[in-house]
């Protein structure tokens, strides 16, 4: 495999990258490369790698980054590895730059591979990409190369590619998705829910429907100034220092690079915006990115109508298989039909192996999986089976 390495999203042939990400999530699409490039912290460096077959066609890709310090608290390797790697190594790790493969934002990583690529060529492509990522991490003086928030297949691929370095795989978090494509309208969806949950869903949909509020579908670039105060209000409600100017900058940026794939549901009352849900369309999936609300207006189950009930009703005439709902707020999402998918992170020692205890890794993963199951398993429609979650 030949590797093409680019240092700017503008240098990456968009048609090649998008050919790789057709079967991946929207967060690896070429537009997100630009978003992450503008959000990259000072001192961070990026490389966009494309493995090509002998005919020059893109076979697989990888985003790689190096940071002088973690770009976000949830991307701090020594925090995640505490208890499975020795304290001296953790201290060393914290003092060195860090390297990340497979993306570093939106809490979703992946190794995009061309759909239909034979297994042997896939392995060769991933080996070449991860080998170059390791070389880049070594050149930056990093102590660990991290692959964050990977689905099962990509996590196992990274483990196999780095097998010589004794990598560590940790269960990291859970993403959820709502399988709207399986229901023929709202009543079909309600009938699918357990009997005890049906009255609440009907009530939440009814109080919104009988109000004077309406839902209008628009593109993100047309409403950035409208939604920024609503998103800022939501973030501040949850304890984040997130002003209107920052929200305007964040969604203005996304509108510039991702506006064509954006689809935003805007709830209005008396010509005033009272809530929104921003989604991105990618293939047959919708990706719910963020919401926001005017908390001076009465709560009429706006969140559940914008994120769940209205899209379920829309889905009858649209080829949407599922709505990706991301991480967190599991009780509310799972109780209304969202299904969980585990995500993993893989850590590779750069200057020397991490020397993690296999038993400690398994115990840690077992404990975290059991904790998620105990807290949230009862909410999952159809029950939760974690027997095939990686440990």
UniProtKB/TrEMBL annotation:
InterPro entries for the chain: Acyl_CoA_acyltransferase, FemAB-like
A Pfam family: FemAB_like
Descriptive protein name: Peptidogalycan biosysnthesis protein
Record organism: Streptomyces solicavernae
